[in-house]
Amino acid sequence: MKASHVAIGFAALLALASAQQQKPRNDEPAGVVFARVPDPARAKCNPLANDPDAPAAGRKLFDEHCAECHGETAGGSKRGPSLRVTAVQQAKPGEIFWIMTNGVVRRGMPAWSKLPEPQRWQIITWLKSVQ
Amino acid sequence: MNAIHLQNTIRLPLLFLLGLAFPSFAQESPYIVTYDHHLEEPGNLEVEYFSTFGTQRAGNDFHAYWMEFEYGATAWWTTEFYLDGQTTFGDSTLFTGFRWENRFRPLRAEHFINPVVYIEYENDSEADKIIKEVEGHDVESDFAVSNATLRKEHDHELECKLILSKDFKGWNFAVNPLATKNLSPNNPWEFGYAMGLSRPLALKASAERCTFCPENFIAGVELYGGLGDTQSFGLHQTSHYLAPAIAWNLPSGWTMRISPGFGLNDNSHRLLLRWGLSKEFSGFSEIIRSWFEGRP
User: May I ask the CATH class of domain B3-293?
Assistant: First the structure.
């Protein structure tokens, strides 16, 4: 194998990284995003809303998985929008759950279905507790 | 190019880049061969090391290893670069080649079954023993030949997979049919499969940061093997493995995996013991982009 092959592969990886020019990730109003949520999903209730451990667990999970884009206090960053805006504060738990599960893939938010459902609800419980 | 030269070419810039990026907590599946539909988070780089120790009848046991650099280019596209090597006991140590893998998620939302399209280019020698997938008529006796002979034959291969995966009540179920084509003329398409089932030991997270919490462990099992080629499709002269697996996602961002794979027929290695260590870094894309855009 030639050295140039390895160099080309690695350079390609770096070029791809630099070429990642997605649309700004917070340019779509949250209300527009929530409008896409199907009615049955919107009607879902948070089964852990009254779990006394859920806010603390949700805070921990938020730090681990969400804060790098949405900021440590959910106030937003260059990589992701604030979750303290009115539209999110007024969103139903089922709507937030659906967005977390499905992501907004074309806008850069990955689907978080790899987190088990109870953990997604724990994050929502924390989000609602700080609003 | 030898392995030491390659390491020196890549190690220093990589260490520098990783030093600038931030470690990120990962929620990795225990699969080593099977893929689920979850892609790398956009802008994150995951650096992974894996080993396969294989027993060999009528030959020397081996230890094959590879590095993976997995980058989330977008939320729907993950690209990965591999470097492979192996040591055959009583024989020699070789750098065996590289791979470039891409996974694309065609659908915007989660569905009953979630497809991901996988395309990989491999440039490696016949001495490659990482057994990242089993395909065609791959059998144990192929690996009994000496490294000096195996390394003379070089492969350029295209590998395509359809990743089908489903999450349900904490369980993940994934099936990966695959087809590979040696790009040299007159080689048939070869087929194989991998499937996996996994679940975290606990679905709810505990309130405290903890190393040994059950939700940090994900247990699973993989089944993979070959399905012949276009000239002789089926199970004849193919090898198959059943491999329990566990992943341990540490709060520091490290993930450890271990998976003993057991051969299911006489064409299979008796044991393929695999283990791996990985760490995810966020903010990698910002660093690279700032270099290319000339921003501080």
Answer: mainly beta
